[in-house]
Amino acid sequence: MEITSVLIYIIVLFLSTIFSYPFLKKLKWNSKSIPYKLPPGSMGWPYIGETLQLYSQDPNIFFATKQRRYGEIFKSHILGCPCVMLASPEATKFVLATHSELFKPTYPKSKEKMIGPSAIFFHQGNYHSLLRKLVQNCLSPGSLQKLVPDIEAIAISALQSWAGGDVINTFHEMKKFSFDVGILSVFGRLDKKHRENLKENYCIVDKGYNSFPTNIPGTTYHRALLARKRLSQIVNDIIYEREEKKILEKDLLGHFLNFKDEKGQVLSKDQISDNIIGVLFAAQDTTASVLTWTLKYLHDDQKLLEAVKAEQKAIYEENEGGKRPLTWAQTRNMPFTHRVILESLRMASIISFTFREAVVDVEYNGYLIPKGWKVLPLFRNIHHNPELFTDPQDFDPSRFEVAPKPNTFMPFGNGVHACPGNELAKMELLILIHHLVTKFRWEVVGSQSGIQYGPFPIPQNGLPARFWNESNNT
Ligand code: HEM
């Protein structure tokens, strides 16, 4: 991790611990309330806990070292918060699925403000279930089928724009691709003016999301908040146009606008725009990181690439050398490529862990998780546990010929907040890979090892690469 990022974290931490110290004192567990002990582990230095250790090295090494030392449940103190880390499938299921009501989602206020406080991620209970039904409905296989031709067109146009041999930043280009697919699933075929406007302002929000949260004119964070306001205005303009023209669409915006509960209550404009922007946010960097890793894995292993090519070429021939478009049925019948995607999701584990907060004192397996403590299910450690995945450092898609044991494979999370976009994400990966391997070749430029965090792990420098169209070498 870059030294500047570490310094920023220390400053954030210092300020947040100073301001939260009285609150943390209140959180101190009253040992008389439940006769259980805290999990093993260390809380590090006063105030800063173990934040420096976590952010000055690969976070995966930090967690793996702890797990070796203390076992699958251990305590720590990071970013000003006492935490319990969970690296077992059972504990993860307990927190995210079977006892999810005891743990609430928790995000820094600055991030909540940037996405919008009414967005699905931040909620529990009835409001959350209502939103989830709407989002899941719109991203269900039935709705996704209709998107295949448009996603295919976006993929072909993206690949054509890269071909020609100039070096591109694969991650940045994948971000543009996943954003366009996100826009499609949210707004259907949106006109160019609104699309460009959304893109421009979203880019500013994206830059500010991980910046130091000082709301002073001139800072990246302040600029991002202003752009965030403009995003809401653009969504409102689109809603207004739809209402004017009495357009009833079946996309996510349509689902939100048509919603009415049994008492006749509808979603407010703010609730709609926070959730639209939230979904665009959830869909972009995640999908782009996994796509970038998948391209790297394919590039680094010629045999793997040949096997994917063989499967995709057969479909290409079936479609008369690509003259006919891909069908929904074909995207559902790419077993080898599908396993490559699952293995890429496991290997890269781009969401290494998630955060929850205990809403009451909770007992788990004889240990106490005190109220107010953060709880971190460690997906990556589970995906890289040799007892659950043999030789976890080897890229081996054949391991998915048999379904993984329950709660051991969670690239899309688990339980009530599990990713509703997982089918869309896999579908856009399959479509892009189909066109990439049947019509293009690519070469990674420069050093091919190393990981960067932004905040998701991506290959060093976003995987700079050159692409060529195989048919005419351009
Ligand atoms: C490969 C790509 C993706 C990965 C790895 C991924 C991963 C995840 C994970 C792990 C969660 C759960 C987080 C938690 O429990 O705290 C999540 C939630 C979510 N994801 Fe995804 N995601 C991806 C793509 C997408 C796409 C394409 C969409 C939408 C079009 C989407 C929409 C959402 C939403 C709305 C939530 C919040 C659900 C809730 O709180 O109920 N994701 N995602």
Descriptive overview:
The structure is a single chain. 38% of the residues are buried. Helix 8 runs antiparallel to helix 9 (170-187), helix 9 (170-187) packs antiparallel against helix 13 and helix 13 (269-300) crosses helix 16 (335-348). The chain has 2 domains: 1-116 and 351-383, Uridine Diphospho-n-acetylenolpyruvylglucosamine Reductase, domain 2, CATH 3.30.43.20; 118-188 and 249-349 and 413-474, Cytochrome p450. A hairpin with a 2-residue loop joins strand 6 (362-364) and strand 7 (367-369). The chain has helices at 3-27, 51-55, 59-70, 89-98, 109-115, 125-138, 141-145, 148-162, 170-187, 192-209, 220-245, 252-258, 269-300, 302-318, 328-331, 335-348, 379-383, 422-439, and strands at residues 73-78, 81-86, 103-105, 167-169, 356-358, 362-364, 367-369, 374-377, 440-444, 451-453, 457-459, 464-469. The strands form 4 sheets. The chain has a 5-stranded mixed sheet with strand order 1-2-8-5-3. The chain is an alpha+beta fold and 474 residues long. Residues 120-121, 132, 135, 139, 182, 185, 279, 282-283, 286-287, 290, 350-351, 354, 411-413, 417-421, 424-425 line the site of protoporphyrin IX containing FE. Belongs to the cytochrome P450 family. Heme binds at residue 419. It is a single-pass membrane protein.
Short description:
The protein is 53% helix and 10% strand. With 474 residues, it is α+β, with helices and mostly antiparallel strands.
